Amino acid sequence: MEKLNKIYEKIHASYFAFIGLIIFLIGLIPAILVEEDFDFFVTHASYLGTPSNDLNILFNVCWFITGVFMIFFLLGFTLYLQEKGLDTKQTWIAFIFSVLSAIGILGMAIFDTDTAHAPHYIFELVFFFAGIIYLFSYAYIEWKSSDFPKFQAILNLIVAFFFILYLVLLIVNRVADDILPEAQSFTEWLFLFANLFWFLENGIYILKK
């Protein structure tokens, strides 16, 4: 543990979140620009990582690297929570599920939805279910602590809501033969940007503290 603390003394945990987000945007923006007839209501984020997109390799590599950086941030975030006196067991449980969610990102980056649909879908479910659990876990931990403003806890619930909404639409469209495809696509982008904002906001918060 002391060795980990020394690492984060030299490199603040927030920087991992900031760099990860920048790397993701480096892959996302060009992939959007070259995607034919891109539309937030039609084009799923996962489509950008398929061979039909000319920059799919760049997108997937950046997405993978982002997942790695998020794991480093989440570890530093967990140590920060423990320094604030929050329950060690609860923070490690939240960390485990957050890392599982990040592993889901790594898997989705490796297996695109066109050429490896089954593993991509499995990692997608890991990402969502683990994400919902860790967001509720952090919300519970922070709500109980007097060191955190209630907004920090509520932010977790807001992001979790977008996760759940997309997951519901994903299941509905699979069961009912795509009755709400536009809503599912748009909600995917909403939860994606909400999740990225979670890392950005928490990174800024602990950096200021």
Structure description:
The longest helix is centred in the N-terminal third of the chain and has 28 residues. Helix 5 packs antiparallel against helix 6. The chain is globular, with a radius of gyration of 17 Å. Helix content is 78%, strand content 0%. The chain is mostly helical. It has one domain.
Descriptive labels:
mainly alpha, 209 residues, single chain
Terminal-residue CA separation: 21 Å
The number of helical runs is: 7
Q: Determine the strand fraction and express it as a percent band.
A: under 5%
Q: What is the H/E string? A: HHHHHHH
Q: What's the pLDDT, averaged over the residues?
A: 90
Biggest sheet statistics: none
Give the fraction of residues assigned to helices. Answer: over 70%
Low-pLDDT sequence parts: none
Radius of gyration: 17 Å
Question: How many domains is the backbone divided into?
Answer: 1
User: How many individual β-strands?
Assistant: 0
- Overall form: globular
Helix and strand composition category: mainly alpha
Topology:
Elements: H1 2-10, H2 13-34, H3 56-83, H4 88-110, H5 117-144, H6 150-175, H7 181-208
Helix pairs in contact: 2-3, 2-7, 3-4, 3-7, 4-5, 5-6, 6-7
